[in-house]
Amino acid sequence: QFCRFQKCLAVGMVKEVVRTDSLKGRRGRLPSKPKQPPDASPANLLTSLVRAHLDSGPSTAKLDYSKFQELVLPHFGKEDAGDVQQFYDLLSASLEVIRKWAEKIPGFAEPSPGDQDLLLDSAFL
Questions:
Q1: What is the helix (H) or strand (E) element at residue 89, kind and residue range?
Q2: Do 28 and 48 have their domain in common?
């Protein structure tokens, strides 16, 4: 009995399965896990993210700072429509850059467009 037990263990059978005689018909082996190749290696994913970042960002030559006025500090507490509009424009431009970047991330296109918007909007706030 002991020799047979040792042979069973030597060929990869599980000790508990051999002793209790469970999983009959499967030759005493535990069910194997299905082997699935990973979708993408971490290096490939990182490369894709960096490439998406570089492709989606505006080039520095195309940036136009003329429409934004420099903030003058002495007018604390005063908030006019121009400041709010300038903030809104900057925020909208930033969100658009992030949206273009996210569209280039592998797997981001899988959810519905509404879900994509929800993901971006909730992450942006």
A1: helix 81-103
A2: no
pLDDT (tens digit, 9 = 90+) per residue, 6-51? 888 788 777 776 666 655 555 545 555 555 555 557 778 788 888 8
My answer on whether 51 and 26 are in the same domain is: no
Note the pTM of the prediction, 2 decimals.
0.46
What was the pLDDT predicted at 95?
86
Residue span of the structural domain in which 19 resides: 1-34
User: CA 42: distance to chain centroid?
Assistant: 11
Report how far residue 62's alpha carbon sits from residue 85's, in angstroms, rounded to the nearest whole number.
21
Same structural domain for residues 92 and 112?
yes
